[in-house]
Fold:
Amino acid sequence: MSSLSVLPPECLLQPFPVPQRLMLGPGPSNVPARIAAAGAQPMLGHLHTETIEIMNQIKSGIQYAFQTRNRVTLAVSGPGHAAMECAIFNSLEPGESILIAVNGIWGERAAEIAERIGAKVNTVVTSAGGYFTNEEIEQALDKYRPVVFFFTHGESSTGVVHPIDGIGDLCHKYKCLFLVDSVAALGGTPIFMDEQGIDIMYTGSQKVLNAPPGTAPISFSERACQKIFNRRTKPISYFLDLNWLANYWGCDDKPVRVYHHTGPVSSFYGLRESLAILAETGLENSWKRHKEVAEYFHKGLEEMGLKLFVQDKKARLPTVTTIVAPPGYDWREITGYIMKTYNIEISGGLGPSAGMVLRVGLMGCNSSKANVDKVLEALAEALKHCHKSRV
Structure:
C-alpha cells in the first residue's frame, strides 16, 4: 500500500502534443525558431557575469527600439500588465491625480490599477475606434492638472494607432509626466520616446518582438526618475519598486547589483534575440513593412465586402486590424471555423469592441503578404460555410 493519498496524475505521465498554429490574433505572436533556440540555451545564474552582459545588451536593444537614451531602461519580469503596474505604482503616490485617455480597454485597465493604489483618477473618453485631438487633451490637462497623463499608443482592442506629436510638450507645459502604453504598437509603427517627450513607456515581448510572453521592456526619463526617486512614500509593490529594479538592471551607477528577485533568465535570452533581430532588420524597415502589409490586408478585406472598424485610414493600427463583425454571423463561429479548418487564430473584440469586431494581428515575423493571403482565404471560406441569419 502506498502511503501517498494523492497519486501521480495520469495526465502528467504522458507527453502533451502542442499543436502548431499560425497566431494571427492580437498576441501572442508566433516565436521564430531563432528566438525559440535562444531560449533553450543552458541555464545561468541570474547574477552571473554572462547574464549581466545579456541584460546590458537588452537595455541597449530597448533604447534602440524606443529611440531613447534614458539611463533607467530595463525589462520587467512579467507581461505588459506588470509593466503597466510598474509605471503607475512608481509614478503615483496615494492621493495624487492621474488623467487617463480612454479609447479602449487599456485606458480602462490603467484607471482600475490607479484606483487600487488610492490615486485620484480622472478620464477623458472617446468612442471605440476614435482618438483625441491635441486640443481635447490640452483642455483635459488644464481642467484636471494631473501628475501623470496615461495614453495608449496602439489600442489593440479597437485597432487604433493614436497620433503622438505634440502631446509630450503639452504634458510638460502642465507639469505632468507623459506615460505611454505601446504594447501593441512598438516596432510596428513609428515612435520616438525622447523626441516626442515621453517620460515613461513600456511594451511587451510577445507582440512585434515575437518573443515568448513574460518580459516587458520599460523606460523612464530623467524627469520621471526625479519624481520617482524622491517619493514621500514607498511604492505599493516591492516586486515592482523601481529603486530595486534600477539597481538589479545596473541603471543606478552603484558598483554592486543587489539580489532583488530571480529574473527569468531563459526569457532574457529570447528577448535579447528578438531585439537583435529588430536591430538587424532596422526600425524604419520594420515600420515600413508593417504599414505595407496592413494596407495590403485592408485592400483585400474591402474587396471582399468587409468593413474596417477604424474609419480614419491614418488611425489604423498596422499591427492589429479590427474588422466590423459581418452582419448576421456569430463571430465565435467564424473564429472557431478558421481555427478548426485552417489552424489559424484570429479573435473577436475586447472591452468596448466586444461583439463588434474581428481582430487580426500581423506582428513581427507574422507581418507578411503571404499570411494576409492565408487569412483572407480563411475568412472567405468561413463566410461561405458559417450560418448566416436572415435578420
